[in-house]
């Protein structure tokens, strides 16, 4: 009897594949990570410290300050250059990101951000090694995948956690350096062991800091330190009709059988360690990665009522929050305890 309660039924092999939503998201992350890496190589966007100007889409992006200092242009033209070529592009980009977040949440974080790709990769390795997504998690996640198959657990995976974090940190430091120095000079110096002293110092310092961040503070950075993420979250929270993970709270009892009654698949897969069935104000750091939605769909693949979690927006998003208020005495109780 105890064994029957502890082990959920086996699932068909076909269900062990990634859900389509997560396959598309992985492709988007891979494509953007590639773009992030090659952008400085093709001068799509970078600032060259050796030339004291930026590049954008292969062209020099110069505000004309040298010409202004030399007296070749007047103050009015210099001010116009700053407005047209600095303030407008920067503010326009921010407005676009915030506008998308206002309607759909932190889509950039969950679907494109190179940092979040690293977060999820190290999460998976730590989960295999310890049963936890992070060293700060208090409890282990249930040892099953949403489709009912056993989740891989092997303490030897710890041998890969630190090298992977350091490798990602070095890659980030190296790519970051190419945004500031001529890319081909950096890569040539790396392969011929002829980097300058300051380039070596930059790589060593950045690799050390990023390694520590990837290992111990990657979730904290996403929640509290990333300016792009925070702006998106504030915009999203300000729109009551923005897309949220909706939860059919009236069917809460269906959650009692999730993962054989030994946990919730949606909680187990969340890379930000949130409670997806919670009220919006407690989901401030949600990246809209949709892993909880995919997991719920997989768990309830044979449920006539369908899945309990799905993305909703507009009036349905408002009704979703209203149901929480009507059925929960406190926000903490809105998480859907079975």
Description of the molecule:
- The longest helix has 30 residues, at 75-104.
- By secondary structure, the chain is mostly helical.
- Helix 4 crosses helix 10, helix 6 packs across helix 9 and helix 7 (158-178) crosses helix 8.
- Among the domains are: 44-104, no CATH class; 235-335, no CATH class.
- A hairpin with a 4-residue loop joins strand 1 and strand 2.
- It has helices at 2-6, 20-38, 65-69, 75-104, 107-111, 114-130, 158-178, 183-191, 197-225, 227-237, 265-269, 291-299, 315-327; strands at residues 45-48, 53-56, 59-61, 244-247, 309-312.
- It is 53% helix and 6% strand.
- The two termini are 21 Å apart.
- The protein contains 13 helices and five strands.
- A three-stranded antiparallel β-sheet has the order 1-2-3, with no helix packed on it.
């Amino acid at each position: 009897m105890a064994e029957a309660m502890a082990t959920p039924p086996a699932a068909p092999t076909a269900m062990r594949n990634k859900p389509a939503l997560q396959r598309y998201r992985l492709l988007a992350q891979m494509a953007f990570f590639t773009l992030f890496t090659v952008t400085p190589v093709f001068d799509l966007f970078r600032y060259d410290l050796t030339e004291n100007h930026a590049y954008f889409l292969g062209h020099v992006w110069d505000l004309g300050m040298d010409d202004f200092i030399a007296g070749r242009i007047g103050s009015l033209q210099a001010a116009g250059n700053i407005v047209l070529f600095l303030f407008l592009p920067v503010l326009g980009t921010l407005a676009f990101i915030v506008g998308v977040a206002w309607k759909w949440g932190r889509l950039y974080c969950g679907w494109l951000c190179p940092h979040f790709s690293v977060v999820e990769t190290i999460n998976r390795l730590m989960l295999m090694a310890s049963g936890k997504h992070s060293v700060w998690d208090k409890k282990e996640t249930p040892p099953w995948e949403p489709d009912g198959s056993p989740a891989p657990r092997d303490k030897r995976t710890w041998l890969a956690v630190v090298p992977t974090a350091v490798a990602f940190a070095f890659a980030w430091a190296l790519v970051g350096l190419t945004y500031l120095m001529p890319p081909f000079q950096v890569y040539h110096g790396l392969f011929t062991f002829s980097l300058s002293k300051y380039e070596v110092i930059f790589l060593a310092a950045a690799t050390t800091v990023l390694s520590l961040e990837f290992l111990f503070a990657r979730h904290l950075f996403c929640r509290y330190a990333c300016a792009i993420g925070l702006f998106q979250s504030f915009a999203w929270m300000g729109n009551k009709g923005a897309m949220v993970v909706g939860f059919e709270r009236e069917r809460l009892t269906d959650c009692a059988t999730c993962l054989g009654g030994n946990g919730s698949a949606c909680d187990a897969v969340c890379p930000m360690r949130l409670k997806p069935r919670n009220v919006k104000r407690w989901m401030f750091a949600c990246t809209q990665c949709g892993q909880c939605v995919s997991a719920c769909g997989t768990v309830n693949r044979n449920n006539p009522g369908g899945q309990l979690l799905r993305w909703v927006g507009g009036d349905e998003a408002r009704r979703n929050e209203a149901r929480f208020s009507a059925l929960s005495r406190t926000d903490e109780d809105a998480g859907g305890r079975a």
